[in-house]
Amino acid sequence: MEITKICCIGAGYVGGPTMAVIAQKCPHLTITVVDLNQERIDAWNDENTDNIPIFEPGLSAVVAETRGKNLFFSNAVEKAIEEAQIIFISVNTPTKTYGKGKGMAADLKYIELCARQIAKVAKDNKIVVEKSTLPVRTAEAIKSILDNTGNGVQFQILSNPEFLAEGTAISDLLHPDRILIGGDQTAEGQKAIQALTDIYANWVPRDKILTTNVWSSELSKLTANAFLAQRISSINALTELCEKTGADINEVARAIGMDSRIGPKFLKASVGFGGSCFKKDILNLVYIAKSYGLNETAAYWEQVIIMNDHQKKRFADKIVKTLYNTVAGKKISFLGWAFKKNTNDTRESAAIYIADDLINEQAAVCVYDPKVNQKKILSDLDYLETRSSQENAANVQSFDNPFEACQGAHAVAVLTEWEEFAHYDWKKIYDAMQKPAFVFDGRNILNKKEMQKIGFVYHGIGS
Ligand code: NAD
Ligand code: UGA
């Protein structure tokens, strides 16, 4: 089968950037990214590429270079499926909020919808690629739907999980550590693997393109996220002990990270990891293990989430305790709302949970984030359903300027590791705050000694 056209279902944080990079590196291919969400598609098609729906360093330039040439964003889902030889499924796979597996299992309803739509529309053989993160053995369900509801055409299903991290998506896509492709061990399966390998080989060295069976590929994605999150929970699990004993977590991380077996990456202590995937993927892993009766395996991985929840809670508690056990009526200013720097994504951000706890204590929360606006902040809080939208709106205010956000505050909490925060004129912020002026550095990005010299009462994480 000659590959000329690709369709990607899902124009989100993965579908958009991934397809933009494929389009840039494969000018001989035509790529259409489709989505049911008209607003999102319109934003991807905005004349000014600075207004595309996702902020990612370097992304708008790649979109400007390719869009309208060989990269298209559309809501004509069926047409794009029909014309393509390869269809990537890149839709969301959130945690189920109902029924069996509620709060743990992955909700596969969007995946199933895609499979049914592909089956209905396809009039010739297609390669269907799982790009979304899926429970191990999902390909079996997709295949069953395709084979039983299709028009008699052949489908090959590949698992090709995405490992990009937000904030560095373009560079991760351009220089991936590896590309993982799982496929059937049959001759047809191997041909499909080859077709996808040939696409990536346009810019990724062949020795970095790893092929496995489908189940190993599906499980490797969940495992990679579980290991990464586990490292953060492991270092965070020691922060409380550092605070009790006078050890400094930054020094401990440096000391252990120099052991080449441990390595220095992903050892930054923090207020807790956020993002759309770590929590949902680990919960999914836990659910799968439990469903096979593997209770010790499930409990082992669940602890990573328990530790992360504890870290967020303990941060909010520490603010209250330090501010003389009451924050009622006090202004607490947040620097950062996004779940990490260089993204406008706020899903599962620690800031949401800390704000929620502080509002429960009747604090007035003021927020500055360079990429997140008031509407998003309020919708994140409303999503928790702790209180009414009106109450959230009455207790949280966002500012376009960090100095205004901190004006008159009793405490500042640094919740995202945006680099600009470390370069502010902190003396100016100090002068405009209530005294004593507290700073809670949830990312350890400020210089403790300098902050203390200015006059701040400084609290880092484990330092
Ligand atoms: P997202 O929510 O940003 O985007 C998903 C898009 O799919 C949405 O715009 C939604 O409207 C669309 N969609 C859902 N059902 C559809 C349908 N039937 N037809 C057309 N469009 C449909 O999600 P995301 O962050 O891009 O994540 C997608 C998948 O990739 C998830 O499984 C996630 O676990 C995985 N993943 C995400 C990241 C990341 O950094 N965000 C990294 C690696 C893997
Ligand atoms: C993560 C993985 O890194 C990607 O490989 C994966 O593809 C993706 O999940 C996914 O499947 O969605 P992402 O969540 O975008 O990527 O960002 P990370 O850089 O992993 O950061 C996650 C969270 O951990 C952030 O809140 C970050 O601030 C926090 N973190 C990270 C720490 O607290 N300490 C660290 O040392 C590293």
UniProtKB/TrEMBL annotation:
The keyword Repeat does not apply. SMART domains: UDPG_MGDP_dh_C. Its EC number is 1.1.1.22. The keyword Endoplasmic reticulum does not apply. It catalyses: UDP-alpha-D-glucose + 2 NAD(+) + H2O = UDP-alpha-D-glucuronate + 2 NADH + 3 H(+). It is an enzyme of class 1 (oxidoreductase). It comes from the Bacteria. This is UDP-glucose 6-dehydrogenase.
